[in-house]
Amino acid sequence: AQRVTQPEKLLSVFKGAPVELKCNYSYSGSPELFWYVQYSRQRLQLLLRHISRESIKGFTADLNKGETSFHLKKPFAQEEDSAMYYCASWEAQKLVFGQGTRLTINP
Amino acid sequence: DAGVIQSPRHEVTEMGQEVTLRCKPISGHNSLFWYRQTMMRGLELLIYFNNNVPIDDSGMPEDRFSAKMPNASFSTLKIQPSEPRDSAVYFCASSLSRGSGDTQYFGPGTRLTVL
After folding, report:
1. Which of A14, A52, A90, B20 sits at a 20 to 30 Å CA gap from A58?
2. From CA B67, how far away is CA B77, in angstroms rounded?
3. How far apart are CA A91 and CA B5, in angstroms?
4. Half-sphere exposure (CA, 13 Å, Cβ side) for A93?
5. How close, in Å, is residue B36 to chain A by CA atoms?
């Protein structure tokens, strides 16, 4: 079965510093990967998907098949980026989520 | 549109009691998902429906859990009898279809505490 691993449960960086949230997947085919985000007191929502190759709120994520990774990156963190981030993959017609990383941006 | 609606938002009950969680998906969405979120296990899919039919319930932890979707605008997740280890946040989500390209929209969740 597909597995999604987010090795860091907690990540803390200073405002203006680069951010990288790690995500690794286990799948031999062509995965479909997503990042979901949950801000404080808000609903879990889609941030971006790899197939779109888009940048949302300054975040990007590149699929690296060689390393089976889909890390989420932002060059300059902002305080409003503090949230819970989930990496997810699409498998057997359902989303499989990682355990999540709580990102805290310190002023 | 108010989005996915869940009730109650908070539920505190005693071990052995029956608990019913409710969900109203976004109008026009054909797929509905129930998830459980815990600190230890993160976000887990329990069951999902397509056109009101249960498609995959492999994530339902045990027979104490059951889910129904009697019509396109309502679903329930029932735990009977409840146990302290069921304490978690339960999310309902809906999407236009069950395809990977369709974004899942989540409800606010129900925080369940079983004493």
Report:
1. A90
2. 4
3. 26
4. 15
5. 11
Six-digit token pair at A13? Answer: 């960086």
Q: Is residue A61 within 8 Å of residue A35, measured between CB atoms?
A: yes
Q: Checking DSSP bridges between strand A83-91 and strand A94-97, what pairing results, if any?
A: antiparallel
Minimal C-alpha gap between A44 and chain B (Å)? 6
Encode pLDDT of A5-64 as tens digits. 999 999 999 999 999 999 999 876 778 899 999 999 899 999 998 877 788 899 999 888
Q: Which helix (H) or strand (E) holds A10?
A: strand A10-14
Structure tokens at A48: 């971006």
Exposed, middle or buried by CB within 10 Å (0-12, 13-18, 19+), for A67? Answer: exposed
Q: What is the number of other CB atoms lying within 10 angstroms of the CB of residue B95?
A: 22
Residue A32 has which token pair?
């479909």
Angle value at C-alpha B29, between B45 and A5, nearest 5 degrees: 25
Q: Which chain B residues are within 8 Å of A93, Cβ to Cβ?
A: 55-56, 98-100
pLDDT digits (tens, 9 = 90+) for A84-100: 999 999 877 788 899 99
**Tokens at residue A40, please?**
């404080």
CA-CA distance, B106 to B85, in Å (whole number)?
23
